[in-house]
Amino acid sequence: MGIGAPVIVVGTGRCGTSVVARLLETECGVDMGGPHDTGRKSNPGGDWEDQEIKAINDAFAKNEITPMQHRIALLSIDRPEVWGFKHPGCANYAHVLQAVFPSASMIWCKRDLEDTAKSFAKAYRRNAESCMNTVLRRHRGLATTIGSRQHTLVLDMTDHRDEDELVDTLKTYLKGRGI
Fold first, then answer.
1. Quick one: angle between helices 65-74 and 51-61, nearest 10?
2. For the chain, how big is the Rg over CA atoms in Å?
3. What distance in Å separates the CA atoms of residue 123 and residue 111, rounded to the nearest whole number?
4. H or E element in which residue 156 lies
5. CA–CA distances in Å: residue 4 to residues 16, 96, 125, 151
6. Neighbour-count burial of 55, counting CB atoms closer than 10 A to its CB (0-12 exposed, 13-18 middle, 19+ buried)
7. Phi, psi of 175 (to 5 degrees)
8. What's the DSSP call for residue 50?
9. Cβ(59)–Cβ(89) under 8 Å?
10. Tens digit of pLDDT for each residue in 141-159?
11. The pLDDT value given to residue 70
12. Against a cut of 0.85, is the pTM above it?
C-alpha cells in the first residue's frame, strides 16, 4: 500500500525522460507504473509512461483541471512504497503536481532546447517552429514551477550521458532523499 511521495520525472519531451524513467525502474527499484509502451520508431527503448498518467495528461489538454487534480491525488493509492511516474505533458501542469505532492522527489531532464525541438519535429513529423514553441512553453513552465524548488535533481541530458553515470547520479539523489 503506497503512501510515499512519488519520484516524478519531468522534461519537455525528447530530452531523456524515458531513459531516466527506465533506469529508475530497472536499476534503482522505483516502480514507474505500467504497462509501458515497449517502443516505437521515435522512441525504440519505450516511453516508460504509466497509462493513468497518459489519461491525466489528456484531461489537462481538455482543461479538465478539477478532475485531473483528484485523479493525481488518487495515484498514490495501491502503489508500492517507492513509486514514480513520467510524462512530458507533466511539464504543463507541474504546479498541480507540486501542490498535490509537495514532498515529491522531482527529476528535471534538460537538453539543448534547439536540439530538443529538432528531435520533436523529426519524431512527430511536425513543423519545427511549432515544436520549438511547445518546447519553450514547457521549459518556461518547468523553470517557473520547479526551477528553484529544493530537492529537484536537474539532469543535463544534452551530451547524452553515459547510463552508468546516470544510474550513479540517480541512486545518489534517491539516497539523499531517503528513498
1. 160
2. 15
3. 16
4. strand 152-156
5. 25, 17, 39, 16
6. exposed
7. -60, -40
8. -
9. no
10. 888 888 777 789 999 998 7
11. 74
12. yes
Give me the helix-helix angle, 113-124 and 128-145, nearest 10°: 130
CA distance 164 to 11: 21
**Is there a contact between 119 and 42 (Cβ–Cβ < 8 Å)?**
no
User: Residue 101 half-sphere exposure, CB side, CA atoms within 13 Å?
Assistant: 24
Chain segment 128-140, per-residue pLDDT in tens? 899 999 999 989 9
What confidence tens digit (pLDDT) does each residue in 62-116 have?
A: 776 666 667 777 777 777 888 998 888 888 888 888 888 888 999 999 999 999 9
Cα atoms in the Cβ-side hemisphere of radius 13 Å centred on 32: 26
The residue assigned the cell 516511453 is 47
Whether the CB-CB separation of 2 and 148 falls below 8 Å is answered with no
C-alpha dist (Å) from residue 87 to 18, 138, 149, 168, 175: 8, 12, 19, 23, 23
Q: What is the DSSP letter of 93?
A: G
Which domains occur in the chain, in start order? 7-169 (3.40.50.300)
Under a CB-based contact definition with an 8 Å cutoff, are residues 28 and 173 in contact? no
